[in-house]
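Progress narrative, work stream C.
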Amino acid sequence: MIETLLFCKPYKVMCSFTDAEGRATVGDYVTMPNVYAAGRLDYDSEGLMLLTSDGNLAHRITHPRHKLPKQYLAQVEQIPSKEALAQFRRGLLIKGKMTRPAQVERLPTEPDIFPRSEPIRYRKTVPTAWLKITLTEGKKRQVRRMTAAIGYPTLRLIRIAIGPLRLDHLQPGEWRDLTQKELTQLKTGKL
């Protein structure tokens, strides 16, 4: 039987099921056998991951050809200028390659999201802002590299959506099965 589920990865958890260095892994939270991460989320990032035993579905989710949008909330140092956000939208040169254009908007207020297990560093003289970012590619540490490239380093990063799938009210360490409708949307590409 094929299993597919959504998982809310906590901060400082590896997206694998084992770790030679003894760090916390997805396997410490999800005990369902034969599911594997469809994509990755950095150790210091949080939020939505898809776990599945369906190799074809995992390929559909992770392969850049399908351009499945992934949405993030990023807390950044300082308040990004309109020009910096325009650069982000056009695409940026990162490690010698251009990123695809991305959607980005500065949120007017802090999002209603779970607290991180370890608070971000706080500096009285350095304001922060929250950005909602949507990418259709997934290069290694891409959001962090893009925000740094425009001069606003990421302090906290949370993935809130993969295609039609939303984090909604899942808390760090929680998971749920996908609905049949969600599976159909992912498999057919009708988002």
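Work stream C, second folded protein:
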Amino acid sequence: MLSKLRTLCLKGIDGREVSAEVYIAPGLPAYTVVGLPDAAVKEAKDRVVAAVRNSGYDFPSKRITVNLAPAEIKKSGTHFDLPIALGVLAASGKLGKKPPARMEDTFFIGELALDGAIRPVAGVLPMLMALKGSGKTAVVPVGNSAEAAVSGVACLAAATLKETAAWLTGEGELKPCARPAEHKISSAPVPDFSEVKGQAFAKRALEIAAAGFHNVIMVGPPGAGKSMLARRFAALLPPMTFDESLETTKLYSVSGLGAAGRLVSERPFREPHHTISDAALIGGGSSPRPGEVSLAHNGVLFLDEFPEFSRPAIEGLREPLEAWRVTVSRVKESVAYPARFLMVAAMNPCPCGYLGHPTRECACTPLQVHKYRAKVSGPILDRIDLHVQLSAVKYADWEALPKGEPSAVIAERVLKAIEIQRKRFNGGIRANAFMAGAELRRHCALPEGASAVLETAMNRLGFSARSLDKILKISRTIADLEGAAAIKREHVIEAVQYRMLDKAAELPAGI
């Protein structure tokens, strides 16, 4: 007998419909799965056999063939357990002489425990998003009910295989997935900017970065406050919108990092160690998974000790910094993950960290300094909008410096600038950093006298065409922070100051 059920799989973070076909034929006991399954899907046999028997059913001792179609899409994960088990019950006549009518318009997702309980799985939200607007129903594990409820798809929560089988035959009921409380922004405590004394130039740069979603790199000696500033940076960013929260939750769901099925309501702050592999940072692996750059989507990626990251990891940032996505290609599949993150990188000026320090002597040779800085290539620096130099704070200055502005005050200015951008782009691109081509020409017209500033920057300081684009975007953000309708010459002059790593003059003497 043949039975057909519907389920879903993931390709990247997008759900795809899958047909689970189970055919039981006379012959020696055998169990075969076809349709490009991975190891977890093949192992479903042992879980399905135990779950069926422990749910009070006899498992057929016949030849069983399971086909997961379409065959060209790789099937991975344990969520195929439930549809396969139900298919076996239907094909063996345990659910009636004919397959129940409810099987036709219902999608089933769930991993089976050996006792027949249905365990939660990763990726439920993005899978269900593929059904939005279709009018179909999905049965999901109870542990994923809160996550499923926000998908906009009619979902039922199932706790056991027997309970689901009873619902299919009309002998039992499943409860609808309960929608969680209205979307609220979490107010987890974040260290405040007022705790950082001095470094006014760096604070100004981070304010601009938050207002225009510009990537930033900070260069300074140990103890200058680079990490301290970076960890307070998230407090300047605006609250996540519902759409941003949904996008980020999809990525965390695919990665199995979802928090009890709730929406991610805080902007991610990811801080990977510099020993991380390029696959873990960018994404990939034999079975592609989102990397740190995607887990930081709509949030902050802080890369401390930037030159200490491996060369492949650093160079792998080129695509996400430019296109805000990561494409992972393998022989059998190619998947894309969004990666619209704000990168904050920090590095020392030299290997020992004390080049240019007012009181500590640098022990590095010019060649060592050059090799250290060369670890961060020109193309990567070109893609970072703001370059910020931090200097060591002397004790006398530190003691005399007043307390800085609170994060809330800076965040208020940032939010006003972001509201200006939202009105300007009218639902299109979300920030000044994402402007390109026509948008750049339309919204970044140069005032009188500014062209000469850019010409000097390009000729004397060796700026690339991409650097000039960055300067225009930064100038637009500075104007937005001031509430100015048009870019002014002083905005361009300030923006040029944030490209210090492009300047040939910054190279150590003798190189």
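The chain has two domains: 2-176, 193-506. No further action is required on this item.
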